[in-house]
Amino acid sequence: MKKILQKDEPLLRKKSEEVNPADIQSERIQKIIRDMKEAMRGEPDSAAIAAPQIGELVRIFVVSKTILPKKEGVERDDLVFINPRITKRSKKKHTIEEGCLSVRWLYGDVERFEKVTVEAYNERGERVVYGASGLIAQAFQHEIDHLDGILFIDKAKNLRDLPPKKDEPKETKAL
Ligand code: ZN
Fold this sequence. Notes:
By secondary structure, this protein is of the alpha+beta class. Helices cover 17% and strands 30% of the residues. The strands form two sheets. The protein has a five-stranded antiparallel sheet, sandwiched between helices. A three-stranded antiparallel sheet has the order 4-5-8.
């Protein structure tokens, strides 16, 4: 399984490259997406992951199906966003606790837009538009920061180190 890079790794500070839409169906890009999902699956508190976190400098992030709204009778899949752009932001911002799979085990308070809309390609090369609030909106902003070499600790206040306790699942999801 791909290792999730940790905060002192210089690659996490680099800007990721856009994916050529013609390459989305290529084995290279499809394997990166599979590896991202697998790495995310290996972390019980994960809610989303960006490609640089597994060492790939391409503009892709994945949101875990575990945080998507439930729909009766619908089997959800992870959502894949390729070359994502935030096209709408709410006027309102709020301050929320955040954690990161690449910054174990720090948590801090980050100011984020309450709602954002992202436009991107999905893993099949189709254009998608997704408007979200709450944790999904937070994940969109956190993951796009990763694609620009930004970590949440650059913006967070009140950073605290909260290593996991045995048999006590993390309340705050890692992004
Ligand atoms: Zn992160």
